[in-house]
Design goal:
Helix content: 40-55%
Shape: elongated
CATH architecture of the largest domain: 2-Layer Sandwich
Oligomer: single chain
Order of helices and strands: HHHHHHHHEEEHEHEHHHH
Protein name: Transposase
CATH superfamily of the largest domain: Ribonuclease H-like superfamily/Ribonuclease H
Distance between the termini: 53 Å
Domain Tc1-like transposase DDE: 150-298
CATH class of the largest domain: Alpha Beta
Pfam family, one: DDE_3
Number of helices: 14
CATH topology of the largest domain: Nucleotidyltransferase, domain 5
Domain Transposase Tc1-like: 71-141
Number of strands: 5
Largest sheet: 5 strands, mixed
Strand order of the largest sheet: 3-2-1-4-5
Strand content: 5-15%
Structural class: alpha/beta
Number of domains: 3
Length: 346
């Protein structure tokens, strides 16, 4: 026999209102398109209980005790990498009747512990956290105008086909091998394009294609031909150059060159190591990736042309949002005591 649908509280209230207005139970059933018995028992229960709310159900008895639920929760918190089957096996070793993995997973969900793919982040030593904390405290009171004086720079690599991101599709069981349900891949990602880029004051600077391996001589050339000219063009005199601690960035050749250029032209921001999450240009790379994917590049040349095209389409409003969030980033790093923070909440 098919399971009958329970009447909602709104429907029960409608039944009571219509009954008080003088409608018969058959008229109410016809008007609300429900059964006569549904109207009858609803009015009967309301008369007995004085309420149109559903009765509290006892439900199926829980197969685990409160102590066992606590054991599951605490075990998972002590070792975040324990799987459902491992937790179930550990619990069943002390029980006469075993519980299923599904039961253990339900207890974890009830405790607010959801399974998810662990995010990959650079390893932070204690010294790294200390430097990140110092940097955040030094810059927490910077205004939006202060942040607009920074020229944000970085390198990024874009692959023609390959991607480390997971692609989700919806398909039937028999459609898993349909072309539109597959993610194409080729060896070495079908080639890649390495770029250097920068932005500041709500505007993008040059996007330079790096051919081959970028060494200190190559980066020195980028500073001369792109970074400093872009800083002066976008921001003006006395701009602040941001760069990470890559060895080619901190080489003697590049450091000596920047020291000579520093007087009245620029200053170099002291940047904490292992901190790509602090650099807003990383979000710009993500946006650039999404935009260029829509063009479906099929070769390195095609990819580079697409990157140049979408680079020019980046809106000033988006760039201003990236710099406007920097005070929140500083506060988040301080709250995390120099550790990583939830970037989606900043």
């Amino acid at each position: 026999m098919a399971r009958k649908r329970e009447l909602s509280c709104e429907t029960r209230q409608s039944i009571l209102v219509l009954r008080n207005e003088g409608y018969s139970m058959r008229e109410i059933a016809k008007k609300l398109k429900i059964s006569y018995n549904g109207v009858y028992y609803s009015l009967q229960r309301t008369a007995q209980t004085g309420s149109n709310q559903s009765r509290k159900r006892s439900g199926r008895p829980c197969c685990t005790t409160e102590q066992e639920d606590k054991y599951i929760r605490v075990s998972s918190l002590r070792n975040r990498r324990l799987t459902g089957p491992q937790l179930a096996a550990s619990l069943n070793s002390t029980r006469k009747t075993p519980v299923s993995t599904s039961t253990v997973k339900r207890r974890l969900r009830d405790a607010g512990l959801q399974g998810r793919v662990a995010k990959k982040k650079p390893y932070l030593r204690l010294a790294n956290k200390r430097k990140r904390l110092i940097w955040a405290k030094e810059h927490r009171h910077w205004t939006e105008e202060d942040w607009k004086k920074v020229l944000w720079t970085d390198e990024s690599k874009f692959e023609v086909f390959g991607s480390h991101r997971r692609t989700f599709v919806r398909c039937r069981t028999t459609e898993k091998m349909l072309e539109e349900c597959l993610t194409p891949s080729v060896k070495q990602g079908g080639g890649n394009v390495m770029v250097w880029g920068c932005f500041g004051a709500g505007k993008v600077g040059d996007l330079f294609r790096v051919k081959g391996v970028l060494n200190k001589e190559g980066y020195h050339s980028i500073l001369q031909r792109h970074a400093i000219p872009c800083g002066q063009r976008l921001i003006g005199a006395s701009f602040i150059l941001q760069q990470d601690n890559n060895p080619k960035h901190t080489s003697k050749l590049c450091k000596n060159y920047l020291e000579k250029q520093a007087a009245g032209i620029l200053s170099v921001m002291e940047w904490p190591a292992q901190s790509p999450d602090l650099n807003p240009i990383e979000l710009l790379w993500e946006q650039l990736y999404r935009m260029v994917r829509k063009k479906r590049p099929c070769s390195q040349t095609n990819l580079w042309e697409g990157l140049l095209e979408v680079w020019g389409e980046i809106s000033p409003d988006y760039l201003n949002k990236l710099t406007a969030r920097m005070p929140k980033v500083c506060n988040a790093v301080i709250a995390a005591n120099g550790g990583f923070f939830d970037e989606s909440k900043v």
